[in-house]
Amino acid sequence: MPIKGLTNQAPQFPMIGELRKGAPKPEQGNAPGKDLTYFRFTSDVPEALEAFEAAYDGEPRLINAFLPFRYVDENWEAWQEAWVAGGLKHRCDGEYVVRIQDDDGAYTDPEPGTVKCPGGCKPSGRLKVIIPELRRLAYVLVLTTSKWDIHNLDSQLRALYEIKQDLRGIPLQLRRRPQKKSMPQGKKRVRREMWLLSIEAAPTYVELQLAAQEAAALPELPETTGPIVVDGTTGEIMGDEWDEETFAAGEPELEVEEDEEFIPPPDFLVVQIPKGERAGQTLGWLAENDPDYLQLVADGAKDPSVREAAQLTIEWAAGQMQMPF
């Protein structure tokens, strides 16, 4: 049986370090460290520090990453929080408290929508990532207190989730990018450059995904081991009703009135171009409308039967005064 509060927790990997945006705090005063243009990695594990320094230069602006869990909210959390030297005072969603410290120092989680935010809180975001170069199944916590970072990461992670409804296994790149943002300065507002966070899929993964989506969007074509044959009279793609004798003769099984003379076109004229710029067009149509392309098919088609049919079509067209198509 589980021990309540000890062994009934959600699955979790160990934390091996932190990625920060700012320099260390000054030794004197409570001011935060200077905002950097690159990531600063900290860890209590010497092997993790050595592996990170071996994989990245001293001022990395791009970090390779995977996410450890399936859903956005398992990897990412963002709250309004109030902190003092002794720890967290309260956490809220900007309107109602979700965790608060009592007078005796203990924490309670009020029922949703019951305790109003007492104020004095600031945005705080935490993203769990696995850095493959560390070779550890342990996450690194990416920290930010920027509302623009939180907006970026939240929307980007939810877009990535829509790819396959699972964030695990997607190779990602965590970046710092310069962006101009409007900020108050005295009684006016000025635009300042800030190096913000963003996360996106790695280019190799994007290339594979786009190719897969393009293939999935193509219409399904009937399976065939040879050229697609079209009825020259009706334009119908012929199926199982063409037996070997009929195919060899090149004429469909049509009921023709005895007093009507029916002269079917040569079978090579109705062979279709299987793919390419003129996919679906017959060789007879090319003879009349695009003889240059027909010559290209005769010279360079991969299927020898198509090349032969194209050459026969060219020879046949040369002896005709008027095409029947």
Describe the protein.
This protein has 325 residues and is an alpha+beta fold. It has two domains: 15-205, no CATH class; 244-318, no CATH class. Helix content is 26%, strand content 26%. The strands form two sheets. It has an eight-stranded mixed β-sheet. A three-stranded antiparallel β-sheet has the order 3-10-11. The longest helix is centred in the middle third of the chain and has 18 residues, at 147-164. 17% of the residues are buried.
Extended strand count: 11
**DSSP strand content:** 25-35%
Outline: elongated
Q: What are the secondary-structure elements, in order, as H or E?
A: EEHEHEEEEEEHEEHHHHH
pLDDT averaged residue by residue: 84
Low-confidence stretches: 321-325
Computed structural class: alpha+beta
Provide the helix percentage.
25-40%
Largest sheet: 8 strands, mixed
Order of the strands making up the biggest sheet: 2-1-9-8-4-5-6-7
Number of spatially distinct domains: 2
Counted by DSSP, the helix tally is: 8
